[in-house]
UniProtKB/TrEMBL annotation, chains A, B:
It is found in: Cytoplasm. Its EC number is 3.1.-.-. Belongs to the NucS endonuclease family. Residues 130-241 form the Endonuclease NucS C-terminal domain. It comes from Thermococcus onnurineus (strain NA1). InterPro entries: Endonuclease_NucS (IPR002793), NucS_C (IPR048301), NucS_N (IPR048302), NucS_N_sf (IPR049173), tRNA_endonuc-like_dom_sf (IPR011856). This is Endonuclease NucS. It comes from the Archaea. NCBIfam families: PRK04247.1 (NF003270). Residues 26-124 form the Endonuclease NucS N-terminal PH-like domain. GO terms for molecular function: DNA binding; single-stranded DNA endodeoxyribonuclease activity.
DNA sequence: AATTGGATCTCGACA
DNA sequence: TGTCGAGGTCCAATT
């Protein structure tokens, strides 16, 4: 079989043929159609008739895209199961997710294009500039924080949450670092404050340092009010980039 | 012109024709191709050769989907600008975003399908079960929180953040509500605590109540430690669903 | 399975 | 434009 099959303005039989082939052959199914969409699950939504691009992946991911925005207007996450029904002569795609129970139904009122694509892909994204790489850099160059800083733990679970980096300063004080790869906001300060307060329950002197390329105005205000500190650090962009994720440092 | 044009295994000229038509005619461009992807901007990534679905929307949104996951492996947000170049006989799609400066390049090594779709869509999603609807419900039925509760402000900006609902209890104490449409976590408790502490700087007695369908174990622990409260409330699902967003209550 | 927090988060609202 | 917080967030990692 060929890698791609596509039929414009398919007959009922052609449409069902493409859908069944795609679902059974682990291919990507793409449909251009006028459709209505019904969703019920964590929330509930209705979308009236209009033209959309529908994409169903072999892993069960189900996307419905309007002609605007990066986000699908409706979707189902990977692991969902697709079935096809016919109601009053209209083909309906139905995707069900168990746990949480969610149902997505697409009424295909008019199909302009039905296609399948047996995509072969053995590559994964290699990304640099993440928070994980900031942490790595700080472990290698602790003086980026301050002279005498010694990082001790990464992703350390404490009483109320998980600290990015836990270490000690020159004078032996416990130091909590909260890293952000982008401009840090009020959220980030609250997070740091939560860690510092949890550790202060057990330790005499605890410093909290927010490590980020910049701060929002509100974050700066709150940080100062709380006696927390800030170090300006940019997430590094490597030349040779690593694939997948690297959470643990050692 | 017809609503859909699709060419399988297009020639160089056919491919360029479809791309140019789609970009100039405000149509959705969909390409099935073996490609390489390069991204540099807020972060930086490389993706080796493989089969993907490429979707370019008239608003500039640019999505590259592998055969797994709900999320695109690479993308560009709406407002980005697409151009086409040819390098060593290979067609390259280039999308540029200004502010922040981000560049996405897709080398089309082999194109299996090129298509355009002039999607007409005048409908927008009508969704129910949001946090905004929880707030509305509480304003109409304040006793869902407790007898004598009087909600006064919605989305009230205070010193360090924006409070969901600010009101007073039967005894005249200031009460901060933090609403979550789903199970509340540590993050939600930190948020509530931040608001309560900001208000306590100005007011004598301030209570903080987390309003959500449930709590994570960690959230419960921290909430109790901090002397904050919890009310179990489910986000309501309406029958007749409203379109778009309704942030302001009045 | 539940918890926690990152993300090129995206998106909308508001000052 | 920057700030702020929601989201059917998704997703990975750890317990």
């Amino acid at each position: 079989m060929s890698k791609v099959e596509a039929v414009t303005n398919p007959s009922r039989e052609e449409l069902l043929g493409i859908i069944d082939s795609a679902l059974s052959k682990e291919a990507m199914l793409t449909i251009f159609a006028r459709c209505k969409v019904h969703y019920d699950g964590r929330a509930k939504s209705e979308l009236g008739s209009g033209d959309r691009v529908i994409l169903v992946k072999p892993d069960g991911a189900f996307l419905i895209h309007q002609s605007k925005k990066r986000e699908p207007v409706n979707w189902q996450p990977p692991g969902s199961f697709v079935t096809v029904e016919e109601r009053d002569g209209i083909i309906v795609l139905r995707s069900v997710r168990r746990k949480p129970k969610e149902i997505l139904e697409v009424e295909l009122e008019e199909v302009y294009l039905a296609s399948l694509f047996k995509a072969e892909d053995y590559e994964e994204l290699a990304l640099t500039g993440s928070e994980a790489e900031m942490a790595e850099m700080i472990f290698k160059n602790p003086e980026l924080i301050e002279p005498g800083f010694r990082p001790l733990f990464r992703e350390k679970s404490i009483g109320h949450g998980i600290v990015d980096i836990l270490g000690r300063d020159r004078e032996g004080n416990l130091v909590v670092l909260e890293l952000k790869r982008r401009r840090a906001d009020l959220h980030a300060v609250s997070q740091l404050k939560r860690y510092v307060e949890a550790l202060r329950a057990e330790h005499p002197a605890v410093r909290g340092i927010l490590v980020a390329p910049s701060l929002t105005s509100g974050a700066k205000k709150l940080l100062e009010k709380e006696g927390l500190e800030f170090r300006r650090v940019q997430p590094p962009k490597r030349e040779s980039v690593t694939k997948g994720r690297q959470t643990t440092l050692f």
